[in-house]
Amino acid sequence: MEKLIITAAICGAEVTKKDNPNLPITAEELAKEALKAEKAGASIIHLHVRDEDGNPTQNKEVFKKAMDKMEEYGVEAIIQPSTGGAAGMTWKERIQPIYLKPEMATLDCGTTNFGDEVFVNDLPLMRNFAKEMKKFDVLPELECFEVGHIYNALKLKKEDLLNKHLHFDLVLGVPGAMPASVKNLLFMVEHLPEDATWTAAGVGRHQLQLAYHTIIMGGHVRVGFEDNIFYTKGELAKSNAQLVKRIVRLSKEYGREIADPFEARQILGIS
């Protein structure tokens, strides 16, 4: 079985230090957290950033500051900035980190209810993202919250807007979107192209359950504070590295080895 790629979503756009005091916010904190997660076994760092007040921002310079600090700390993992931003942002606001030419970035593949808000990703917006990522040779991670989102991504592929390896992130358990369950994960995976790779991200208490099954199914796993701030029920996680270490242990006990950052690049076709 292919080695396991672990993505650490180290901060997200919604979680605050009130939710978990261990949440990294500043460039320095993000860099330290990324390095710890990498040493624990993560080969992708999924990155959101915050402004000086702790609010989510897509400002290119804030991303650059965090990414430069990670390079300074010697982080070798793939840095994957989010283009999700926050509900209500324009696509031009959200696309900014692409212009830093990262190896990889997220591309949300459809509109979805997101709690009390609507996260808008219509096809014209998706095409804009795909065109810019293609122009700057950035590998999109295709974020899918529903099975229809997979077919939106395949439409972009058919339109020759996705010219690189197809890698999906199946996000289950967002309030208002597809619930997190093994049955729904299996259903989603059945609709993926055979030559694609995929990661599963379970939100909240579903994170560990989906991780177990993803390891066995040959997918890849995303964990981290963006999706889940607890280690066990009622016990806040001390770090993203703590969540990563558990996945490493489970995968190795199953007999599946962990991909280092360089092996992850080979699997994803960005080496």
Question: What's this model, at a glance?
Answer:
This protein has nine helices and 14 strands.
Descriptive labels:
alpha/beta; eight-stranded parallel β-sheet
Describe the protein.
With 271 residues, the chain is α/β, with parallel strands linked by helices. It has a single domain, classed as Aldolase class I (TIM Barrel, Alpha-Beta Barrel). Helix content is 37%, strand content 20%. It is built from nine helices and 14 strands. It has helices at 27-40, 60-72, 91-94, 123-135, 147-158, 182-190, 206-217, 240-254, 261-268, and strands spanning 6-9, 44-47, 49-50, 56-57, 78-81, 104-108, 112-114, 117-119, 139-144, 167-172, 197-202, 220-223, 230-232, 235-236. It has an eight-stranded parallel sheet, with helices on both faces. It has a two-stranded antiparallel sheet with strand order 3-4. The chain has a two-stranded antiparallel ribbon with strand order 7-8. The longest helix is centred in the C-terminal third of the chain and has 15 residues, at 240-254. The two termini are 20 Å apart.
Integer-rounded radius of gyration: 17 Å
The CATH topology annotation reads as: TIM Barrel
Helix content: 25-40%
Distance between the termini: 20 Å
What is the second-level CATH architecture?
Alpha-Beta Barrel
Q: What amount of the residues lies in strands?
A: 15-25%
**Count of individual domains:** 1
Morphology call: globular
Total beta-strand segments: 14
- Which secondary-structure class do the elements indicate? alpha/beta
What top-tier CATH class fits best? Alpha Beta
Strand order of the largest sheet: 5-2-1-12-11-10-9-6
Mean pLDDT: 96
Uncertain spans, ≥5 residues at pLDDT below 50?
Answer: none
Note the run of SSEs as H and E.
EHEEEHEHEEEHEHEHEHEEEHH
Number of helices: 9
Largest sheet: 8 strands, parallel
CATH superfamily: Aldolase class I
